[in-house]
Amino acid sequence: MAGLSFDNYQRNQFLTSKNSAQPKATSTGTTIVGVKFEGGVLIAADTRSTQGPIVADKNCAKLHRISPRIWCAGAGTAADTEAVTALIGSNIELHSLSTRRQPRVVTALQMLKQHLFEYQGHIGAYLIVAGVDPTGPHLMSVQAHGSTDVGYYLSLGSGSLAAMAVLESRWREGLTKDEAVSLAADAIEAGIWNDLGSGSNVDVCVMEVGKDAAYLRNYRTPNVREPKQQSYKFARGTTAVLKESIINVCDIEEQEVEIQA
Amino acid sequence: MNGIQVDINHLKKGEVSLGTSIMAVTFKDGVILGADSRTTTGAYIANRVTDKLTRVHDKIWCCRSGSAADTQAVADIVQYHLDLYTSNYGTPSTETAASIFKTICYENKDGLSAGIIVAGFDDKTKKGEVFSIPLGGSVHKQDYAIAGSGSAFIYGYCDKNYKHDMSKDETVNFMKHSLSQAIKWDGSSGGVIRMVVLTKEGVERLVFYPDEYENL
Amino acid sequence: MNTVASEYSSEVQSTPIEHSFNPYSDNGGTILGIAGEDFAVLAGDTRHTTDYSINSRYEPKVFDVGDNIIMSANGFAADGEALLKRFKNSLKWYHFDNNEKKLSMSAAARNIQQLLYGKRFFPYYVHTIIAGLDEDGKGSVFSFDPVGSYEREQCRAGGAAASLIMPFLDNQVNFKNQYVPGTDGKEKRHIKFLTVDEVVRLVRDAFTSATERHIHVGDGLEILIVTKDGVRKEFYELKRD
């Protein structure tokens, strides 16, 4: 059978009723944005990944490549955003090969929304999809339930309100690339500082018409850790060796060989 | 309802909804569809410039209300069916489109929250037609239809002010006033007013900003 | 004109909605107390949160309550403030009733237990720590659970990142899991009193580390240090993301 298996659903339902909690998926309590500008489109994201109140990854990558010039930023359940972009990315490439045409953003979007709708929101992926194709630059978003939106500027994730506040106050028509990059990075920073689910660095991906996509990993790093007050290096032998055993996984043969110059 | 009631009115958790004000009105030269542009997730406005007027065929369009995901999916499927119909039999009637919408909404009533108004212009009869398809999947042919959460506030206004065979300007004005009031009193509606005019001349899109419609 | 019912009429709720007021909330933050030989420190971050929002980047939660005692009640900030206020009031009356007699650490601890247990079935939702000098002038730290169970300890972390900091403290203050090199785990590393500077370094590293990994910790670190000369304050910036 193709698709996801729901075999364990009933078992998990039973286990929950017997008071053992279900394992929680790592959610990228995220800030992601997308901004259109003169001659292209870009997306940006923070790099914090959380498991409840704990930071699981301080520098994770939330920008995913669907095709060389179509990228997407993911919020929601980390595993879902990665799996769904990988799946659609794979199908887009096959589709591109069989049609002998460059992949289009609307194609990726339609595939994403149909896949997500089929799973009725159980796949917790919230994506901002952007890219350039033969029809020009595009910026769209998909929600887990399968609804899509189009816009000149978008934001998603737990920090989307903070980011949108920046975008709403500073976005205008006809931004240059550099203006758009700094606007997007500022919007992500608003999320980093004001939303506890977001933090660490800013990743950016710029897609310009007629150019290769530029993935700017850690475009801004406003959260470098200060050096610690002291070293915590232990003196050798601080940890007691209680038992020692060496397993020979292979036989070693030594042989001397003379090499002529 | 006889004790057998399917809970078709709930949105799934965190779902994006179109707490909407939508309408479609027939007039002398055809039909006009109108809608606000607000999409909400809870109290947050997820999109303030949404386009709820969706093309399913050249001159058959629909107004969407309810779950954004459900109505988009339904509209996509209807568009597919109408494309297929067109290549097999030629241009479909508005009634055919409404019937496809109905079938999907009716057969899947337990899984969908979609309130749709289908409106189209028939190039053969030179007539505009409006079909309302509310939650359960019934079809209602009407001279005009209103739907969405904001419509509750304008039943009286529309009933008093609608006239048969209005001119285009009269109709646009009637809809602008109606939607203006719906938006004013319904918190889930807002943004701009979008309209699509379907006549023998073709398809025309109109946008009205708050500055204009708030001070009519 | 026939009328069609709007969704309005079908807005019926089949399952009853339960409305209830939750008197508690979690305002995050973390605190840490360490006792030295002739001093004690109590440190706390200054971030105040609810859920994913920061309410304030500087809201002190470690206080000098008088009589060379410092106190912090971390958890639900409103309860923490209420408890602190009640203890300060109790201390004032102690002075009135006992001719300005200085309250000892052990007496303060017992008094706080009474305040906490007094609300046994509607508890103060806080982890409380006090620090000061005992009757022999030795550094002392007492920590309390929400309903008043308490213990004198060498060091204790409380609040959001307590579980992250406490193992570090066990290892670096009480030298847990450390052995004297070359003894094959026969001889534990000998404990010794740390100096104020050493303690402050540990506290700062504990908080910068907790800030890295816990979203409810950050913005600022305020350390209160008690010695025989009184209470001193130090402040350090923490990361704000």
Give the secondary structure arrangement, pairings included.
The complex is a heterotrimer of chains A (261), B (216) and C (241).
Chain A lengths: L8 H9 L9 E2 L3 E6 L2 E7 L2 E3 L2 E4 L5 E5 L2 E8 H22 L5 H14 L6 E9 L2 E7 L5 E3 L2 E4 L3 H11 L6 H18 L7 E7 L5 E7 L41
Antiparallel strand pairs in A: 1-7, 2-3, 2-11, 3-12, 4-5, 6-7, 7-8, 8-9, 9-10, 12-13
Helix pairs in contact in A: 2-3, 4-5
Chain B lengths: L16 E2 L3 E6 L2 E6 L3 E3 L2 E4 L5 E5 L2 E8 H22 L4 H14 L6 E9 L4 E7 L6 E3 L1 E4 L7 H7 L6 H18 L7 E7 L2 E7 L1 H4 L3
Antiparallel strand pairs in B: 1-7, 2-3, 2-11, 3-12, 4-5, 6-7, 7-8, 8-9, 9-10, 12-13
Chain C lengths: L29 E6 L4 E6 L2 E3 L2 E4 L6 E4 L2 E7 L1 H21 L7 H13 L8 E8 L5 E6 L5 E4 L1 E5 L2 H11 L23 H18 L6 E8 L2 E8 L4
Antiparallel strand pairs in C: 1-2, 1-10, 2-11, 3-4, 5-6, 6-7, 7-8, 8-9, 11-12
Helix pairs in contact in C: 1-2, 3-4
Task: Provide a descriptive summary of the structure in words.
Chain B: One of its GO terms (molecular function) is threonine-type endopeptidase activity. Chain B: Its main location: nucleus. The complex is a heterotrimer of chains A (about 260), B (about 220) and C (about 240). With about 260 residues, chain A is α+β, with helices and mostly antiparallel strands. Chain A has helices at about 10-15, 80-100, 105-120, 160-170, 175-195; strands at about 25-30, 30-35, 40-45, 50, 55, 65, 70-75, 125-135, 135-140, 150, 155, 200-210, 215-220. In chain A, strands 1, 6, 7, 8, 9 and 10 form a six-stranded antiparallel sheet that branches. In chain A, β9 (about 135-140) and β10 form a beta hairpin. In chain A, α2 packs across α3 (about 105-120) and α4 (about 160-170) runs antiparallel to α5. Chain A starts with 8 loop residues before the first helix and ends in a 41-residue tail after the last strand. The mean pLDDT of chain A is about 95. With about 220 residues, chain B is α+β, with helices and mostly antiparallel strands. In chain B, strands 1, 6, 7, 8, 9 and 10 form a six-stranded antiparallel sheet that branches. Chain B has a five-stranded antiparallel sheet with strand order 11-2-3-12-13. Chain B has a two-stranded antiparallel sheet with strand order 4-5. In chain B, α1 crosses α2. The longest helix of chain B has 22 residues, at about 70-90. Chain B is globular, with a radius of gyration of 16 Å. The model of chain B is unreliable at about 1-10 (pLDDT under 50). Chain C is α+β, with helices and mostly antiparallel strands and about 240 residues long. In chain C, about 25% of the residues lie in helices and about 30% in strands. Chain C is built from four helices and twelve strands, in the order ββββββααββββααββ. Chain C has helices at about 75-95, 105-115, 160-170, 195-215, and strands at about 30-35, 40-45, 50, 55, 65, 70-75, 125-135, 140-145, 150-155, 155-160, 220-225, 230-235. In chain C, the strands form three sheets. A five-stranded antiparallel sheet of chain C has the order 10-1-2-11-12. In chain C, a hairpin with a 2-residue loop joins β3 (about 50) and β4. In chain C, α1 (about 75-95) packs across α2 and α3 runs antiparallel to α4 (about 195-215). The termini of chain C are far apart. Chains A and C meet through α5 of A and α4 of C.
